[in-house]
Amino acid sequence: MSSSLNLVSGDDLLIQAECRLTLFPSLCIECIKSDPSYRQADKKGIATIIVKCLINHASTLQSGTSQIASSVLSPTMKVVFQTCATGYGFANQVLNDATRALTNFDAAGALTYVGQARASNTNCQTTSAVYIGVIPKVIPSEQILYEQLSNVATSIITAGIRAH
């Protein structure tokens, strides 16, 4: 079953309206405005930009957790961060699937993919929590940001489904 997002031309008012639907409106606006094409974005475009921000953060986390895995001596810690890196690689794949789903007006499919990507972050946060004092602070900070952006994406895509 396919759901679609309303097509309405994008501008600052539309972006503010969409971002007010989320728990993190400032983060939402910052993410959207980081894309050079944001002024032309309709609701589908706004959702796609948010997913692209998630892809960027998944890539950053994949690289960061992979670097930790390759530099630690503890076999247990190595496995934890190799698993995290693999999870963020998977997240990257399904988030790319989410952008394709949005392009095809399949908001329900996009929502499923975003949920799968969010689970990869949650799994890594859970398994790596014991290493918070040992790993670079940027990793847990990125994980929190990733979780917040996942929430933003879910809210905007869900609102698009409800509006249709």
UniProtKB/TrEMBL annotation:
The protein's UniProt keywords, in alphabetical order, are:
Disulfide bond, Signal
Q: Which residues form the Pectinesterase inhibitor domain?
A: 10-156
Per its record, how is this protein called by name?
Pectinesterase inhibitor domain-containing protein
Matching entries from Gene3D superfamilies are given as:
Invertase/pectin methylesterase inhibitor family protein
What family does the Swiss-Prot or TrEMBL record give for this protein?
Belongs to the PMEI family.
Q: Which domain of life is it from?
A: Eukaryota
SUPFAM superfamilies per the UniProt record, alphabetical:
Plant invertase/pectin methylesterase inhibitor (SSF101148)
Per the UniProt entry, what species is this protein from, by scientific name? Crotalaria pallida
- InterPro entries in alphabetical order: Invertase/methylesterase_inhib (IPR035513), PCW_Enzyme_Inhibitor (IPR052421), Pectinesterase_inhib_dom (IPR006501)
Gene Ontology terms, MF aspect: enzyme inhibitor activity
Q: What PANTHER family does this protein's entry cite?
A: PECTINESTERASE INHIBITOR 5-RELATED, PECTINESTERASE INHIBITOR-LIKE
NCBIfam families with a match to the protein in the record: PME_inhib
Query: Which Pfam families does this chain map to?
Result: PMEI
